[in-house]
């Protein structure tokens, strides 16, 4: 059992739950209620929100499988890279569009997942 990957799996599952519950309330519901968006924009964005849900859930599964394997696997390395890419894209958007680090705090959830995955891969 790799404890670092297990921790990354748990944090990924927590992040997925947060995305569904809080993100559903502050992003998905208002998106669906918006009347000033065209159908293509609205439902493509809603579709993407669900793709993110699936991707975060897949991170949890990937890390859980790797934790059980007890060693760094290609799956764990892939999940680690994805977590870091999610964090970097969040920070990149914040910089590009001059957004608030606090209001757009997705990076703070994905960065620790990547760190846990990295430590697990090196150990």
UniProtKB/TrEMBL annotation:
<keyword id="KW-0812">Transmembrane</keyword>
<keyword id="KW-0472">Membrane</keyword>
<feature type="transmembrane region" description="Helical">
    <location>
        <begin position="43"/>
        <end position="63"/>
    </location>
</feature>
<protein>
    <recommendedName>
        <fullName>DUF423 domain-containing protein</fullName>
    </recommendedName>
</protein>
<feature type="transmembrane region" description="Helical">
    <location>
        <begin position="75"/>
        <end position="95"/>
    </location>
</feature>
<keyword id="KW-1133">Transmembrane helix</keyword>
<feature type="transmembrane region" description="Helical">
    <location>
        <begin position="101"/>
        <end position="122"/>
    </location>
</feature>
